[in-house]
# Entry
Amino acid sequence: MTTIPVRSTLGFTASVTSGNRLVLAPTDSQAPLVCVLTRLIGLNTVSTGVAGASSGYVGNLGSFASNLYAISGTSLTLAEFGATANNLVDDIIFLKAQYGVSASAASTTVAAWQSATPADMQTVVAIRVGVVARSALRESEAIDAPSTLSVLPAIGGVSTVTAPASGQCATDGLTFEVKCTVPDTGYRYRAYSTMIPLRNVMWTRCPVARPDCSPW
# Structure
């Protein structure tokens, strides 16, 4: 166990199973010059397992959250830490997300938008999310509007992906556009999308020539 003095413990939550995540950044005089990600298990005790990490800078990342968003029927649901899912919003038909992956861990430029595996986490620099919402009441006649919507817009160029079947989505391999076809044309639909740069990841990127550098 390692004890690291801090000016105040305000805002720190200690627990063996759910304590705050901490980043320990050593001072320049310490060796090896590495940052350590650990959990706060006591108000004055941090389990690091790394020699030379008994002083330096402490960054409190807060507690870990596990939120699973999904579509169930026509509702957007949320399950926290694997618990039973609860409805967040009604009349949500589609939910799509893509990860912006860079070519290397040192780059902050998105090379492709795709699904991601745990092995890709060090190269994810942005996320974009799209949802399709529908009107609460069904019209008496079919709506005279396109039944296929662009949920995630094309990133440059013109998409050539064909319209998917009713209630399905398809992704263009070149422009990364996601198109979805609504399941019932008796409702009015609208697509919303947003792009989220992961600033904390970008700010802590180290140049290739300094693989041991610290964001502090």
